[in-house]
Amino acid sequence: MFLRIDRLQVEMPLPKDPDPAAAAAVNELMGGRFGEMTTLNTYMYQSFNFRMRDKLRPFYALIANIATEELGHIELVGAAVNGLLYGADGKGSVAAGDAPFEDMFKQAGAGANYHINGPHGILAANSLGQPWRGDYVFNSGNLVLDLLHNFFLECGARTVKLRVYEMTKNPAARMMLGYLFTRGGVHAHAYALALEKLTGVEVRKMLPIPRILDAEIPECDKFIKEGSHRKLYRFSPDDYKEIAAIWNGPGLDASEILEVVDGPPQGGPQYQMDGVPEAFIPEYHPEEIVDIANKLYSAAGGSQP
Amino acid sequence: MFLRIDRLQVEMPLPKDPDPAAAAAVNELMGGRFGEMTTLNTYMYQSFNFRMRDKLRPFYALIANIATEELGHIELVGAAVNGLLYGADGKGSVAAGDAPFEDMFKQAGAGANYHINGPHGILAANSLGQPWRGDYVFNSGNLVLDLLHNFFLECGARTVKLRVYEMTKNPAARMMLGYLFTRGGVHAHAYALALEKLTGVEVRKMLPIPRILDAEIPECDKFIKEGSHRKLYRFSPDDYKEIAAIWNGPGLDASEILEVVDGPPQGGPQYQMDGVPEAFIPEYHPEEIVDIANKLYSAAGGSQP
Amino acid sequence: MFLRIDRLQVEMPLPKDPDPAAAAAVNELMGGRFGEMTTLNTYMYQSFNFRMRDKLRPFYALIANIATEELGHIELVGAAVNGLLYGADGKGSVAAGDAPFEDMFKQAGAGANYHINGPHGILAANSLGQPWRGDYVFNSGNLVLDLLHNFFLECGARTVKLRVYEMTKNPAARMMLGYLFTRGGVHAHAYALALEKLTGVEVRKMLPIPRILDAEIPECDKFIKEGSHRKLYRFSPDDYKEIAAIWNGPGLDASEILEVVDGPPQGGPQYQMDGVPEAFIPEYHPEEIVDIANKLYSAAGGSQP
Amino acid sequence: MFLRIDRLQVEMPLPKDPDPAAAAAVNELMGGRFGEMTTLNTYMYQSFNFRMRDKLRPFYALIANIATEELGHIELVGAAVNGLLYGADGKGSVAAGDAPFEDMFKQAGAGANYHINGPHGILAANSLGQPWRGDYVFNSGNLVLDLLHNFFLECGARTVKLRVYEMTKNPAARMMLGYLFTRGGVHAHAYALALEKLTGVEVRKMLPIPRILDAEIPECDKFIKEGSHRKLYRFSPDDYKEIAAIWNGPGLDASEILEVVDGPPQGGPQYQMDGVPEAFIPEYHPEEIVDIANKLYSAAGGSQP
Amino acid sequence: MFLRIDRLQVEMPLPKDPDPAAAAAVNELMGGRFGEMTTLNTYMYQSFNFRMRDKLRPFYALIANIATEELGHIELVGAAVNGLLYGADGKGSVAAGDAPFEDMFKQAGAGANYHINGPHGILAANSLGQPWRGDYVFNSGNLVLDLLHNFFLECGARTVKLRVYEMTKNPAARMMLGYLFTRGGVHAHAYALALEKLTGVEVRKMLPIPRILDAEIPECDKFIKEGSHRKLYRFSPDDYKEIAAIWNGPGLDASEILEVVDGPPQGGPQYQMDGVPEAFIPEYHPEEIVDIANKLYSAAGGSQP
Amino acid sequence: MFLRIDRLQVEMPLPKDPDPAAAAAVNELMGGRFGEMTTLNTYMYQSFNFRMRDKLRPFYALIANIATEELGHIELVGAAVNGLLYGADGKGSVAAGDAPFEDMFKQAGAGANYHINGPHGILAANSLGQPWRGDYVFNSGNLVLDLLHNFFLECGARTVKLRVYEMTKNPAARMMLGYLFTRGGVHAHAYALALEKLTGVEVRKMLPIPRILDAEIPECDKFIKEGSHRKLYRFSPDDYKEIAAIWNGPGLDASEILEVVDGPPQGGPQYQMDGVPEAFIPEYHPEEIVDIANKLYSAAGGSQP
Question: How many CB pairs under 8 A join D and E?
Answer without folding.
Answer: 77
